[in-house]
User: Which sequence fits this backbone?
């Protein structure tokens, strides 16, 4: 459905993204994950035809974005970082305007507007001025705008930003409901978002893809049998840290103030030795938690300098 | 086509529902009605003094009253149209709704044309309001209608030039202030290019006079439609809409 080949974009002589390659299949929900400034928005702006890349190509549903921009734009619903809403328009009028602008069949405009209002539960505010709505509601109007032409592809740039926790979970539910009807790319820098709604995750850092896989594969591959151990002691924390660093199988120890974070291999002996050591030191063990490496750790590992897939 | 009309309709509605439009219309009408009444009364006095019905010989309504009225309408438009067109594209950029336009299946040409037509629509409403004055005068006495229509055609075309100029200025910036100031400067330049230099003899003077709006507009309000003036005004409009299209298109290449 979407094919991105060798896509690069420079702002002046500053590279925002560098030779990206990935594909999104029909019906997939893909999470575009990366820290601030990674190049997520830039990539999305190029896919939607908002701006031209410096080099490389993008094909959407078989059409090249730069040779056939109108065909591509007809098929994409796009929610940019800032919802593109007119403050002096009423919600329903605005959605009708967008539907017409997207060139949907005249006979379908009314039903599509009604269904976009329904899906985003905006019916109550359909007759209100957009300028008077709260930020979260504006965001929802932005999403309704992306949905209103019933596009094959949805490109959502940080759809949950600025929403309260209840609305965030509603938005995630909504995205889950949309699965199957649309091919979706959504960007975020929060992991739970990807875990909540995506089939596949593309992790991008400093303009390059550092990982592209399904969620399970990624967890499996990245943890590489590794474990993280979380420890809390009452006394002698510094001494304990120094001692643990010497245990075979321990890769890294961090003194995190009121706790100690340990990265270790998958051997149970390692955990046993760490525990024994703490007890022998008489440090007063109060907490010890063993976890296989979580997605969060993977993300931080991949996107911190020096980290690699 | 549909994209163009959708955009035009949205902008027209936006302009007409904006309080600014009513402020402008009200202000304009205060000036117009005052001057129109004064012109008409003076005309009546003078016709009476010459003790002959004005429409038959000597004095003509067109020359004595309408000309002054249309000049006032025009004079205000030089300043008011930039205030109407300033938001057309600048505000879209400022509020990021421009993203929606650029990612919708419409071409840069459709965007430029739609915006132009929307702006022209709003200005046409003002022109129609100003047309009520001479029209109401028909209730008092008959006068030749065709020259008046020619004058109004001229007014419409010159207004369209200002809309196109204002739209272009609006395409150049995110700032509404800058947009309105640039439009004003462009408008005044179109007028003053023929002043000063137009006095000079020779080809340079003739070219400058042709480029300036003044000569062409004067022809229209005197009641005659000249082909070269029609061509000239339409090309200026086309030129600025084209420039706008180029600016919109170029925004993809940042
Ligand atoms: N218009 C611009 N001019 C110059 N540099 C830009 C521009 N837009 C983005 N950049 C730079 O390009 C890089 C990628 O930006 P982009 O907006 O794509 O990041 P992002 O992944 O969306 O980040 P965020 O999570 O903060 O939204 C950043 O370093 C940013 O500073
Ligand atoms: Mg972004």
Assistant:
């Amino acid at each position: 459905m979407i094919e991105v080949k060798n896509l690069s974009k420079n702002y002046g002589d500053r590279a925002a993204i560098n030779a990206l390659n990935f594909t999104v299949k029909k019906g997939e929900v893909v999470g575009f994950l990366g820290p601030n400034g990674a190049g997520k928005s830039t990539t999305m702006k190029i896919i939607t035809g908002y701006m031209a890349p410096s080099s490389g190509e993008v094909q959407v549903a078989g059409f090249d974005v730069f040779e056939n921009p109108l065909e591509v734009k007809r098929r994409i619903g796009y929610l940019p970082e800032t919802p593109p809403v007119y403050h002096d328009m009423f919600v329903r009028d605005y959605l009708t305007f967008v539907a017409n602008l997207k060139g949907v069949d005249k006979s379908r405009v009314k039903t599509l507007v009604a269904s976009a209002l329904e899906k985003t539960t905006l019916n109550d505010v359909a007759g209100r001025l957009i300028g008077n709505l709260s930020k979260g509601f504006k965001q929802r109007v932005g999403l309704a705008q992306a949905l209103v032409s019933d596009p094959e592809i949805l490109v959502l740039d940080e759809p949950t930003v600025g929403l309260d926790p209840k609305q965030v979970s509603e938005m995630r539910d909504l995205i889950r409901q949309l699965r199957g009807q649309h091919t979706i790319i959504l960007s975020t820098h929060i992991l739970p978002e990807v875990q909540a709604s995506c089939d596949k995750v593309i992790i991008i850092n400093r303009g390059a893809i550092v990982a592209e896989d399904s969620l399970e594969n990624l967890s499996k591959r990245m943890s590489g049998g590794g474990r993280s151990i979380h420890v809390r002691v009452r006394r002698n924390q510094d001494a304990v840290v120094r001692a643990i660093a010497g245990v075979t199988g321990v890769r890294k120890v961090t003194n995190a103030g009121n706790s100690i974070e340990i990265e270790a291999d998958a051997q149970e002996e390692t955990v046993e030795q760490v525990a024994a050591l703490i007890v022998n030191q008489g440090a007063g063990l109060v907490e010890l938690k063993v976890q296989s490496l979580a997605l969060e750790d993977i993300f931080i590992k991949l996107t911190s300098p020096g980290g690699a897939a | 086509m549909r994209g163009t009309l959708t955009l035009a309709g949205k902008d027209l509605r936006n302009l007409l529902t904006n309080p600014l439009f009513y402020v402008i219309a009200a202000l304009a009408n205060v000036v117009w009605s005052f001057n129109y009444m004064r012109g008409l009364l003076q005309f009546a006095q003078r016709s009476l003094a010459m003790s002959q019905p004005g429409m038959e010989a000597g004095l003509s309504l067109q020359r004595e009253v309408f000309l002054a009225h249309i000049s006032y309408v025009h004079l205000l438009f030089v300043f008011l149209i930039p205030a109407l067109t300033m938001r057309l594209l600048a505000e879209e950029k400022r509020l990021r709704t421009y993203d929606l336009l650029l990612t919708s299946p419409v071409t840069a040409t459709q965007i430029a044309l739609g915006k132009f037509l929307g702006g022209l629509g709003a200005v046409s409403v003002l022109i129609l309001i100003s047309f009520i004055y001479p029209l109401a005068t028909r209730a008092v006495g008959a006068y030749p209608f065709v020259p008046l229509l020619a004058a109004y055609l001229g007014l419409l075309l010159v207004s369209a030039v200002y809309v196109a100029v204002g739209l272009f200025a609006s395409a150049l910036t995110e700032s509404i202030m800058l947009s309105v100031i640039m439009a004003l400067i462009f408008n005044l330049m179109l007028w003053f290019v023929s002043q000063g230099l137009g006095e000079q003899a020779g080809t340079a003077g003739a070219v400058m006079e042709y480029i300036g709006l003044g000569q062409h507009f004067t022809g229209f309000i005197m009641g005659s439609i000249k082909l070269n003036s029609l061509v000239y005004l339409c090309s200026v409009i086309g030129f600025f809409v084209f420039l706008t299209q180029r600016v919109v298109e170029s925004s993809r290449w940042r």
Notes: Residues 59 and 232 of chain A are 52 Å apart (CA to CA). The domain at 224-291 of chain A is CATH 3.30.70.980 (Alpha-Beta Plaits).
